[in-house]
Amino acid sequence: MAKDQIVSTMFRFHSLYRIIATLSVFSFISIFCWCQFSSKCYSMNVIMMQKAKESIDLLTFPYAWNVLSFPAGPPSQILKIGVFVKKWPHRSHAGGLERHALTLHLALAKRGHELHIFTTSSPNSTFPTYPFPNLVFHLSRPTSGGYLDQAVVWEQFRAQNSTGRPFDVVHTESVGLLHTRAKNVPNLAVSWHGIAYETIHSDIIQELLRSPEERQATMMTERAMKVVEEVRFFQRYSHHVATSDHAGDVLKRIYMIPEERVHIILNGVDEEIFRPELSLGIDFKRKFGISKSRSLVLGIAGRLVKDKGHPLIHEALKQIFMENKKFQQSVTVLVAGDGPWGARYKALGANILVLGPLEQAQLAKFYNAIDIFVNPTLRAQGLDHTLLEAMLSGKPVMATRVASITGSVIVGPESGYTFSPSVESLKKTLYKVWNDGRVVLENKGKAARQRGLQLFTATKMAAAYERLFLCISREQYCKYQK
Ligand SMILES: *[C@@H]1O[C@H](CO)[C@@H](O)[C@H](O)[C@H]1NC(C)=O
Ligand SMILES: *[C@@H]1O[C@H](CO)[C@@H](O)[C@H](O)[C@H]1NC(C)=O
C-alpha cells in the first residue's frame, strides 16, 4: 500500500511536471511572439533564452547589449585601446557625442585598460587631467573646419601601434577616423551618434513648423543623397555600434550592413551622480524659493535653441497660461541651460525660473527637485542623455515621438509620456500630466528608475563596450553564457 502511494504520488508529480513544462514552453513561445517587435520586453526574451540554456552569439545578438549582464570583476584581459574623437570635453555641458566619449572611456580607464585618445588640442583652455596613468592623450591641431587632421593622427596612431604592443581594438566616435583610413583596420568599431537617415525626420518636423517668412532650410533631396553617401562609405568600417534600437535597425535594413557587424549599445550616464536623493531636491527648491504649495514642478534642460524644440514648448506654455489660470498658479517650470530662448522663457512670468547652465552636481539636484522632465527635442539623431539622467534620478519623462526615444527610452506609458512635435499635441500632454498629478508621476518615476538601472547606467554601457572590444580582439569572448 505504501508502495502504491509512492507510485501514485510520483505519478502525480510526474504529470504536474509535464504540465508545468508544457506551460513554460507555451509561455516561452507566446512571450517570444508577443515580444518580437517590442523592445519593451527584450530583457524577458533574454531571460527566456538563458532559461533555455542557449549560449548567445554576441555578434549577431539583435537587442541592446545593455540587457545582458557581464561579470563585474576585473576584466578578463587588459586591452590596449585606440580612440579617435574630434573633441574631448572640457566642461560638463558638452554635447552628446563628447559626453559619451568622456563617460565611456573614463570608465574603461578605471577598469585598468590602456587607452590612447587621439583628439584635438584646444588653443584657449588647458587640457583636463585625470588620475589614470593608463589614459594617454595624443593631441593635434584641428583642421580649419575643426576636424581631426587625419594625416597627423594616423601617424601618431601608427607610432603607438608599432611600439611592440599593437592596439587590440580601435574605437572611433563617429567619423573621428575617416573611412579612408578606417577601411584598413579590421579590429575597429565606430559608434554613431546620429545618422543622416534619422535626420530626415528632423527635417520633416522643421519644415512643418517653419513660418512663411523663414526660408527653407536643407533641401530634402540633398538629405536623401547624404543617406546614399553614408550607405556607401559606412560599409568600410568593420564594426558598428548603434546607440539606439532604431539606429541599429536602420544600419542593418537601410544601410545594409551585415547583422554580425552591427551591435546595439545604448548610451549610459553616471549612476553615482544621477540618483534619487530627496534632500538634494529639497535643498534646490529652498535655494530657488519654490514653495511647497506648487503642486507640480516641470523641468527642462539643455541648450535653449530652436532645434531642441524650445519654440514649441514656449508657445504651448504661453497658450496654457493664458487659458488656464489654475494651471499657471499650480505649476513651476525650471529651465536649466543657456541659449537664445532663455530670455523668452523669463518673459512668460514669475513661475518660470531660468537657472542658466548647471554643472553636473547642480544638475543632479535639479533632477531631484522636479516632478517630471520635459524634453521637446526636434532632433531625431542619436540618443538623448538628459532623458537617461532624469530616469536614473527617479523622474518620469515626457518627450517628442522620435524613433530613438519611443524605441529605446519611453517605450510605453509606464515611465512617461510622448507627444508629436506640434503645439497642440504638447499642450494636450501637459494637461494630461497636470491632471494625472503627483502620485501618478511618482509611480511612473519609480518605473523610470527601474528601467534606467536596467539599461542606462554608465557601468552597463562600459561593460557592454568592454565585452565588444574583447570580442573584436579575441573570438573566444564572442559567446555569452549565463
Ligand atoms: C579661442 O578664443 C578666440 C578669441 O577669444 C575665439 O575667437 C575662438 O573661437 C576660440 N577658439 C576656441 C576653439 O574656443
Ligand atoms: C598594428 O600593428 C600590428 C602588428 O604589427 C599590425 O598587424 C597591424 O596591421 C597594425 N595596424 C595598423 C592599422 O597599422
From TrEMBL:
| Entry keywords, A to Z | Membrane, Transmembrane, Transmembrane helix
Reply yes or no: does the keyword NADP apply: no
Instruction: Spell out where the chain crosses the membrane.
Output: 16-39
Could you tell me which InterPro entries the record lists for this protein? Glyco_trans_4-like_N
Residues forming the Glycosyltransferase subfamily 4-like N-terminal domain are 95-272
Protein name listed in UniProt: Glycosyltransferase subfamily 4-like N-terminal domain-containing protein
Organism field:
Gossypium raimondii
